[in-house]
Amino acid sequence: MSDINESLTDQIAALAEGQQTPLSLAEKALERANALADLNAFVAIDENIVMTQAKAATLRRQRGDPLSPIDGIPIAVKDNYLTRDYPTTACSNAAPLEPKGIDATVVGNLRDAGATIFGKTNMHEWAYGATNTTSNIGATRNPHNHDHITGGSSGGSGAAVAAGIVSAALGSDTGGSVRIPSSACGIYGFKPSYGRASRHGVLPLSWSLDAPGPMATELQDIVHLLPYFLGADAKDSSTAHAEAFKTVPDAKPVHLINLSGPGLERSSEVNFVINDALRRSDAKVGQASLGDVDQYFAAWEAILHCEASAYHSQLLAENAEGYSSVIRAHLEAGTQLSGVELLEAQKIRARLVQHLTRDLKGWDALVLPTLPVPAPAHGEDWQEFGKRKVTTQDSMTWFCWIGNLAGFPCITIPVGTSSKGLPIGMMLMGRPGQDEALLAVARIIDRSIRKQR
Amino acid sequence: MSDINESLTDQIAALAEGQQTPLSLAEKALERANALADLNAFVAIDENIVMTQAKAATLRRQRGDPLSPIDGIPIAVKDNYLTRDYPTTACSNAAPLEPKGIDATVVGNLRDAGATIFGKTNMHEWAYGATNTTSNIGATRNPHNHDHITGGSSGGSGAAVAAGIVSAALGSDTGGSVRIPSSACGIYGFKPSYGRASRHGVLPLSWSLDAPGPMATELQDIVHLLPYFLGADAKDSSTAHAEAFKTVPDAKPVHLINLSGPGLERSSEVNFVINDALRRSDAKVGQASLGDVDQYFAAWEAILHCEASAYHSQLLAENAEGYSSVIRAHLEAGTQLSGVELLEAQKIRARLVQHLTRDLKGWDALVLPTLPVPAPAHGEDWQEFGKRKVTTQDSMTWFCWIGNLAGFPCITIPVGTSSKGLPIGMMLMGRPGQDEALLAVARIIDRSIRKQR
User: Fold this and answer.
1) Mean pLDDT for each 10-residue chunk of chain A (453 residues)?
2) I want to staple A103 with a disulfide (CB 3.0 to 4.6 A). Which of A107, B15, B198, B334 is the partner?
3) Interface test with chain A among B343, B349, B354, by most A beta carbons within 10 Å
4) Rounded to whole angstroms, how far apart are CA atoms A219 and A227?
5) Is the minimum CB–CB distance between B302 and chain A shorter than 8 Å?
């Protein structure tokens, strides 16, 4: 579907050439959101808030004084980013927040550039799950087939972009929550390096794993949006050494390592599409396994559960009933892990980084499918692939958590379609802090795929 | 006693001027160690190992080719530093290590400079305690009064220096283990900023709190030794951003903040000596309290216990009987803390740093007594001071843990004597990474005290 939607890059050109105005873009987005309400992509869209911003942007453009190339482009925001106009609920009844005049840093950056903050998107409750089927407003539907899930936790953002309501949206990613719905919905999603993008004003799930990221219609959209994400922010100490976005380096022949082996199984259909896409690119492709994937996964889970339970401990004590029973059970289970287990997990985390950077050599990007299966149908509790049978939840994070545990930048790009017409995405992981170099690799793969169509 | 002992600085001059040779220094140290064996300061001194090094150093000096100004000076080493010639036991029967040709980085640095690695000093078992009364070779005795303890965990190093056996020794400090015996024995002890000195080859107690540090006869000795401690070491990732030692800046009038209030009580005798020393200095002295000291202390304890239990978990499972019962009990208790409690402790740690650096303004050093009481007598289980009654163990770490939890550089300098003739030390804490600036402050205080004598 992304091929037929107008991208942010298209919209930048249309605004610059006067074929569109911020008002016409906003009206079209509102119309389309109304027409596609059954996707359940949005928690809140306030027509007045949208039109007020769009009118101001239109006036700026009429004066010939736009704030930036994206001035007046509607961008949707996951409902765990604080926004000064909309409430923030994380799609939970536990602690809905009224707007208090505070924008998350990324939202503020986009607003300062004139973007029309379009509405708040549906998400997996508290971002603590990857299917987008647990939400106080109900599950999202996949625009490619409403009987299928979007994946999550940024599922509303994925659906809104894939359906062409907006050209771009904001997500957050702790174990794949930007990349999973991007892949399942056939769009582009980028998780920055840990510590390079400010999380200030994004409700945390697990602060040592969380990253905010853009989800968009084409690869160049990501290039346009990343400057609003990257760079130091005094309000997020993890970004103390973060560099601002630099230009994407020139594409050159690249060396990829295609990861596979025990713990990294995928369906034969997904495997075929990924390998076919690699074959069509000019990249040199090596092969490697990841060692003890189960141990690394357990470390990711331990860190996630401990940090989430620590963040929620006070609220859980005060208002346990506000949480859905499944999220409450996760949070209670997280309190059972010992400090020694957490420290062991942190050590294993360091070993993963060492394995990827020292044992594997000379790579420009590591390759995995983003998901082992195309988007599952609603109501499916289990997924079977490559002699594995795992919960649908575990199938969604199957590969993605690796990027969070390592802290590496990751992108998913749509590379094909399943026999049922559902999108299949390829994940590329780059070196920490080298988000721009990862974009250069993605561009090579992306071009080779688009060329063939 | 330190006034009558030859300092490392004295020895540097005596060697340069030919009044001493490495051999004469080694012989004198061996003689004195034998004469003062009842201090129980040493786990191991091997006369052959000492004399072999001293002969080589003497030859180098005879050739006019010393490796450094400290070439041939005997330096004692706490028994948790790996040494390529001596075994390393941490004064425990749990896992004595035969020498394997590996020196801790700091030991290697000193050896490369020609220092005579003199022997291994008695310590509190695994450094997990601050009295030096739990050791598989028995307690150390305070050179100022054998009926009193040295404090610990680097108590053997403190006794060896204070007794004039060696002019300097190595300690390690997780909650005061360099500063406590330095203060109790009337010498100088320095804990570097966290992450500025390599711990490679020093058996850990709690890796996010541990720092290695020098203990010596006069302040200038510390200045001579710190270059061998500070700087990046690829074998200790915490030092990735560590700067090498720079020159101590010129002394200028300084602004101190004298910390006191609830949780920071001390005996009236200690209080008098500290305030008298401050009064005699030219420093501008402000006053502040530390807020919720109990909460900060609990955070230090939680981090210490979790990390120690994590480090020892495998060995404890394999050889619980090797530990003394008290250390085993500590390690078993540490496994009971939850991951959420550990994360909460880490948050409180960040709050302490923020309090000391943002809420308290404009200071060059923070001042506390190093200990709330002079060295306790052997057999005393409790200490009473300032309306507090605490275990002798807790009285030893009473102030010192603050520097470890914050990660700040700290020094203790002897500033007076109790009515019973036991030393009293003043602790100065500097800003993180500014170890040299802390030495400049210490020099001002130290000169004003020495001048008065």
Assistant:
1) 78 97 98 98 98 98 98 98 98 96 97 98 98 98 98 98 98 98 98 98 97 98 98 96 95 92 97 96 94 96 97 95 96 96 96 95 97 98 97 98 98 97 98 97 93 64
2) A107
3) B343
4) 14
5) yes
